[in-house]
Design goal:
By secondary structure, the protein is α/β, with parallel strands linked by helices. Helices cover 28% and strands 25% of the residues. The protein is globular.
Length: 296
């Protein structure tokens, strides 16, 4: 682990219990078995409770490596010192690809909003995100906005393979049973599937999707992927996406705060934390924790 980083790995053993493993920089690896719970909040609390002693020792980032059925567990939801961990410390879900998650300086961005023409809130979110990214007082980003039918499949593919550093998508995503066929819904009924991302020549360093289930993968012991994981496999360094269906107002607020933080050239981890803090204060009972930040 890097200085200030806590690596946390968890999976389910053959006895049905959770095997939790963790290590901080300069510390010895630790492990413990915990009883299983079908309630994700209860299980997240149990894991975070075991990590409490090490979290208090100068940890400024948690790298979360869930295995099998633990993939869908929102560790950020677990409580530490009376508040969710994800509003206090960045929690980054890693695919453990052995690649640096470092993100280059952002210079150009493309925003896709309401490609299907039936999400007024997504259209407003896209406009607000584009405005925030282009209005930074220090080094504003070069931003292009594609709304409605302008957000076509051809345009999306061309922008993903261009030199754009950031792509933000506010619209519908469709989950498929195996994850690989999950896709972004684009104009004129077109889709861009997760498996197709692996065939692109390159993808942006940062991708954000405030779309329902854009981070979801098939449940079970077999390792599977969804849209967010496919972007990471294709080369993105930071991918923001949601595990579950989310309300338009929650998605819009999250996207705006995320973009405002990135416009101030904060790292993706800090932007994720800022967005979590903002939406948790406004929508404490909503699934704000479903927004996950993925890295290699």
């Amino acid at each position: 682990p890097a200085p200030g980083e806590l690596l946390v790995l968890a999976g389910r053993d053959f006895d049905g219990r959770v095997l939790l493993w963790w290590q901080r920089a300069g510390g010895e690896p630790m492990q413990q078995r915990l009883s299983w719970s079908d309630d994700s909040k209860t299980l997240s609390n149990r894991l975070v409770d075991r990590l409490t002693p090490v979290l208090a020792r100068g940890i400024d980032r948690v790298t979360w490596l869930p295995i099998g059925v633990l993939r869908s567990l929102p560790l950020a939801r677990g409580e530490w010192r009376g508040r969710p961990l994800g509003v206090q410390i960045p929690v980054v879900t890693s695919l453990d690809l052995g690649m640096t998650p470092a993100v280059p300086e952002l210079g150009a961005a493309a925003v896709f909003a309401d490609p299907t023409g039936d999400l007024v809130a997504a259209r407003r979110e896209g406009e607000a995100v584009a405005s925030a990214l282009g209005a930074a007082t220090k080094r504003p980003l070069d931003v292009d906005l594609y709304v409605g039918r302008a957000a076509s499949r051809d345009t999306m593919v061309a922008l993903l393979e261009s030199d754009v550093d950031l792509v933000h998508f506010a619209g519908h995503a469709a989950f498929s049973y195996d994850g690989w066929s999950s896709g972004l819904s684009l104009a004129d009924g077109a889709q861009l599937a997760a498996w197709e991302l692996l065939y692109l020549h390159q993808v942006p360093a940062v991708v954000s999707m405030t779309a329902c289930e854009s981070s979801r993968s098939e449940a079970g012991d077999t390792e599977r992927v969804g849209l967010a994981q496919a972007f990471v496999l294709a080369g993105s360094r930071a991918v923001l996406a949601a595990d579950v269906p989310i309300d338009d107002h929650l998605a819009g607020r999250y996207g705006r705060v995320w973009a405002q933080a990135l416009a101030q050239h904060q790292p993706a981890t800090a932007a994720w934390l800022s967005a979590n803090q903002a939406v948790f204060e406004e929508f404490p009972e909503a699934p704000w924790w479903s927004f996950r930040l993925w890295s290699p």
